[in-house]
Amino acid sequence: MLHRKLRLHRRISEIKDNWPGYDLNLFTYPQHYYGDLEYVLLPRGIIVDRIERLAKDIMKDLGYCDILILCVLKGGYKFCMDLVEHLKNISRNSDRFVSMKVDFIRLKFCRNDEAMDKMQIIGGDDLSTLAGKNVLIVKDLVGTGRTMKALLSSIEKYKPNMIKVASLLVKRTPGSDGFRPDYAGFEIPNLFVVGYALGYNEYFRDLNHICVISEHGKEKYRV
Q: Phi and psi (nearest 5°) for 145?
């Protein structure tokens, strides 16, 4: 099986730890979140432009082969939607049609008395249909990398032809095990970010921009 051993070390847009972000007053955002955010980390326009570049890289690397896209919900759906649209645009303007099937999964961890030890994949078609396919996993954020490694281990059992991972964000976190996706939009500091489908207790998913939540926002929507 072709996997991820031959990694292409691409440039990633890195947001420095001392990056002050953008003033909220420069953008429009839902009034019910006034006071709940610190600043805009990534405006939607920059996000979408970066995704277009990722789409071009993916099509170039995969050689215009048919792709089965697995979108990890809930946070990955906007990234996946925009990425697929750009992939389709590239396909439409090429001399070869690229078939793209999109499926959606959610990940659930079962806990024992001490820690998360078993991951369950919820939703999606029969995963045995992944056999022999070129699979692109689309996710919102990679933090420690442990979730992605567990997901890859589960997917590999179905013997796809190839597995690639695209993540909109990679967070610099002290607990990282060094996992890096094949395609990443932005590397960000160890901040609590919301928006562009990333949520906090199901709130903030309707934000167009990726923002840093305030302490007031955390407390207001804590459950």
A: 95, -10
- Which residues fall within 8 angstroms of residue 25, CB to CB, at 6 or more apart? none
The dihedral of CA 109, 110, 112, 117: what is its sign? negative
Q: What is the DSSP letter of 153?
A: H
Strands (E), the chain: 13-14, 37-42, 67-73, 100-111, 116-122, 134-142, 162-171, 183-188, 193-194, 210-213
Q: What is the pLDDT of residues 7-29, one digit of tens each?
A: 444 668 999 999 999 999 999 99
Strand 100-111 versus strand 116-122 pairing type: antiparallel
- Strand duo 210-213 + 193-194: pairing: antiparallel
Q: Are 183 and 55 in contact (CB under 8 A)?
A: no
Q: What is the pLDDT of residues 53-107, one digit of tens each?
A: 999 999 999 887 889 999 999 999 999 999 999 999 999 888 878 889 999 999 8
How many residues are there in the chain?
Answer: 223
Q: What is the value of pTM for the model shown?
A: 0.89
Contacts (Cβ under 8 Å, ≥6 apart) of 100: 66, 67, 68, 69, 84, 87, 88, 91
Question: Tokens 């960000």 correspond to what residue?
Answer: 188
